[in-house]
Amino acid sequence: MGDCCETEQGVYVDSLLNLEWLRKSLVREEDSIIFSLIERSKYPINSRLYDESAAASLLHLFIKESEAVQAKTGRYTSPEENAFFPASLPPPQHKLVETFGTYQVLHPSGACININSKILNHYLNTLIPLVAAKGDDDRNYAATAASDLACLQALSRRIHYGKFVAEVKFRDSPQDYTPAILAKDREGLMKLLTFESVEEAIKKRVEKKAMVFGQEVELQENGNYYKVKPELVSQLYGEWVIPLTKFVQVEYLLRRLD
Ligand SMILES: C=C(O[C@@H]1C=C(C(=O)O)C=C[C@H]1O)C(=O)O
């Protein structure tokens, strides 16, 4: 790597350790999450896609194979990315990406935190039934799986940003976090890292975004119809996305002094 790449890497690492940049990334990720939910709502539940009675489900196959392609093309060299099936992923296989280094941004014992199995479970059991209509179209399983993966990857990215947020918060005030980490005081850590006003603003904003992104566009006024219920997105954030991001933060902090 030449100087130029090192400089670029430096800028990238600096961004990942800047709370303002991270909060902007969380805001941008809202767009991806909402758009992907809107896309998923095009298809009915298609529950046979998730049927695990014959070994692994079709969704499982779809995600595993997709992640293998994405690993070969370098997706998981980024510290912002976490695979759903990380065991035995192939290495990058193209010269454009095979020299990508790994970035030492996070504390090593927290860097590998991966709660994607939790995310996948919540997604399958809670989210799909709320977003998709009942029924099965007997056809669009691969397209449905592709939109599931888009939702899952956006949610996973968003939630695992918690690791970087936690690192920045720790570096900003180690004197506040250290005693709670040493005492393994989850509740205390949760209090320290929580900013209620930031969370309230997020819930309001995602509801508004869902209204704007998901409205039916007609030439004539036809009242308000939204492809995904705006209050559902706000609820999803309040009950699930924000709590899981905070869970990641607490897990990370608990390992921060290992
Ligand atoms: C991510 C942060 O930490 C906490 C979690 C938040 C979230 O998941 O959106 C928002 C505010 C904080 O309570 C943050 O401070 O930005």
TrEMBL record:
Cellular component, GO, one term: cytoplasm
Principal EC category: isomerase
GO biological process annotation, one example: aromatic amino acid family biosynthetic process
PROSITE patterns tied to this protein: CHORISMATE_MUT_3
Name the record gives this protein: Chorismate mutase
Reactions catalysed: chorismate = prephenate
Superkingdom of origin: Eukaryota
Pfam families for this protein: CM_2
Originating gene: CM2
InterPro entries for this protein: Chorismate_II_sf, Chorismate_mutase_AroQ_euk, CM_AroQ_sf_eucaryotic, CM_II_prokaryot
Sample GO molecular function, one term: chorismate mutase activity
Keyword Chaperone: no
Keyword ATP-binding: no
Pathway the protein takes part in: Metabolic intermediate biosynthesis; prephenate biosynthesis; prephenate from chorismate: step 1/1
Cellular compartment(s): Cytoplasm
UniProt entry keywords in alphabetical sequence: Amino-acid biosynthesis, Aromatic amino acid biosynthesis, Cytoplasm, Isomerase
EC number: 5.4.99.5
Chorismate mutase domain: residues covered: 142-249
